[in-house]
Design goal:
The protein is of the alpha+beta class. About 30% of the residues lie in helices and about 10% in strands. The protein has a 7-stranded antiparallel β-sheet with strand order 4-3-2-1-7-6-5. Helix 4 crosses helix 15, helix 5 runs antiparallel to helix 6 and helix 8 runs antiparallel to helix 9. It is globular, with a radius of gyration of 23 Å. It starts with a strand and ends in a 27-residue tail after the last helix.
Length: about 500
């Protein structure tokens, strides 16, 4: 049906190979089989939950396939192996090749046949499909995760009305903006919400324990903000006196980004030491630069002129392996004479699991519900670019933005590789989803009990599977008026399967 060159992306690995689509299955044969698993990976088309267009190196050449693991009963009907991960991120030589492969997949009648069993009957019944419910369901899931077909507005309204949690909404916005757990350069970004890591009690009823969500991380402290503003104005002044052929970059405030592969591995080094070693040329970073405590990290992200990083979803989910040195790795000794071992917990956290539970409770607290739309404006909305970004102190280096450069016009291979390396290593701003002010949440439920927060609304467990979150959002938002899902694998050392599947 279709066959051609493609590259499979997983954290820090780009595997060139060939993709083949038949009427029953999708196949990928790596050229070198770097992962060392199987010579050919394949999955039944019936168990593909969604086809979602993605970016790679800020170019529209990616396609992410979201899979389901067939039930035992279904496996007896579907012969052959299944993909060993909840999703597969593929990139192509051009947007035209991507669209051709997607069209070939979408044209197969068997695509998504097994997915309808995951959907609530009421939702399927509203999709107005005469012949192939599974096809309409798959189209809806794909549109949902591309923020197309009216889904973005409907999910936003569901969040405003309290039908979708803050966590699920942020995860959805990340996926809709092209972020992926298969690409460290586009790992989902979540906000710092707590700033109190010193006191013995975390009082979620006290607004002073929360970060100012109206401001980016670089603007959290006035003294540092003055430095960033001065840099921007100095660059702006120089640019005004430079001719059109000058080499001065566009003015920016922050030379670093809030989300980069290095920052993701900074947080996850204990869970995925192999990835850090690959990123750092076979060695860990200096002990004093490793993730040691949230207090130290908060202080750095609000005081250093080279650190404005945000958090990642793992800080609000089950799974504390990234906070514990379970493998007893020798990370070295800090300058204060103390070894780097488990992450040092704030006084208000009794265990790593308790820290995650209280972080999650804080994310769902009334203060965050009332102010989260401001942070969304900065990361996914109208304050991302243009005069609004300048006014909001939210201007990053120009190569972090989509459309900053047209790689098709670069003829030199060395120049192209250098540009792609810079884009992939120094941060990528998510796709802009909103061009106007994001509305606030209309309801602010009380903060959930940390003891039961991970069963709060029964949504976060759904978000830990390849199709669960999109199924939940489809049900909560209802079908778009004019129209007829999410993956959360976890990094773990060496790429082993962990809480949702392997991504390596």
């Amino acid at each position: 049906m279709w066959e051609g060159p493609a590259v499979q992306l997983s954290p820090l690995i780009r595997e060139p190979g060939r993709l083949a689509v038949t009427d029953q299955r999708v196949y990928f044969q790596p050229l070198h089989n770097i992962s060392g698993d199987t010579p050919v990976r394949s999955h039944p088309l019936a168990a593909v939950a969604a086809l979602v267009r993605r970016r790679s190196s800020l170019q529209p050449v990616g396609l992410e396939l979201f899979m389901i693991n067939p039930s035992l009963e279904l496996k007896q009907q579907l012969t052959g192996p299944v993909w060993d991960a909840p999703s597969a991120f593929l990139t192509f030589r051009s947007e035209a090749d991507r669209e051709a492969a997607r069209a070939a997949l979408a044209a197969q009648p068997t695509l998504g046949m097994a997915v309808s069993s995951l959907m609530p009957t009421s939702t399927l019944g509203n999709l107005n499909q005469p012949q192939h419910p599974h096809s309409q369901q798959l189209v809806a899931a794909g549109q949902l995760l591309e923020a197309a077909g009216g889904w973005l507005q409907r999910v936003m309204m569901a969040w405003q009305l309290g039908k979708v949690s803050n966590f699920d909404y942020l995860l959805y916005l990340n996926l809709a903006a092209g972020r992926s757990f298969n690409d460290l350069a586009q790992w989902p970004v979540f906000p710092w919400v707590v700033k109190d890591y010193k006191n013995a009690v975390l009082d979620l009823g006290n607004d002073s324990v929360f970060r100012d969500l109206k401001k980016p991380m670089g603007a959290q402290t006035e003294d540092r903000l003055r430095i960033f503003r001065q840099r921007y104005h100095d660059m702006e002044s120089i640019a005004q006196h430079t001719d059109a052929a000058g080499d001065m970059p566009k003015p920016f405030m922050y030379g670093t980004h809030y989300s980069t592969p290095g920052y993701v591995m900074f947080w996850l080094v204990r869970a995925a030491p192999g990835h850090m070693l690959r990123l750092q040329a076979g060695k860990f970073d200096a002990p004093d630069r490793l993730f040691n405590s949230l207090q130290d990290s908060w202080d750095s992200a609000t005081s250093s002129t080279t650190d404005v990083k945000e958090l990642i979803p793992e800080f609000y989910m089950l799974g504390a392996d990234f906070l514990v040195n379970g493998s007893q790795l020798a990370f070295g000794m800090r300058q204060n004479g103390k070894p780097v071992n488990d992450v040092v917990l704030p006084p208000w956290a009794t265990t790593p699991e308790n820290l995650l539970a209280k972080h999650r409770a804080a994310l769902e607290a009334p203060y965050v519900s009332a102010n989260l739309h401001h942070w969304i404006d900065l990361i996914f909305g109208y304050k991302q670019t243009g005069p609004a970004a300048v006014e909001a102190d939210n201007v990053f280096y120009h190569l972090t933005y989509e459309g900053a450069v047209d790689t098709s016009k670069i003829t030199g291979l060395q120049e192209l590789k250098a540009l792609e390396t810079q884009i992939n290593e120094f941060g990528q701003t998510p796709k802009q989803l909103f061009s106007h002010l994001h509305p606030p949440r209309l309801v602010q439920p009380p903060a959930p009990d940390p003891a039961t927060v991970f069963s709060y609304g029964d949504t976060q467990q759904a978000a830990a599977t390849s199709t669960g979150s999109s199924t939940h959002l489809l049900a909560a938002a209802g079908p778009p008026a004019s129209s007829s899902s999410s993956s959360k694998p976890r990094l773990k050392g060496g790429g082993e399967d962990a809480a949702g599947g392997s991504i390596c």
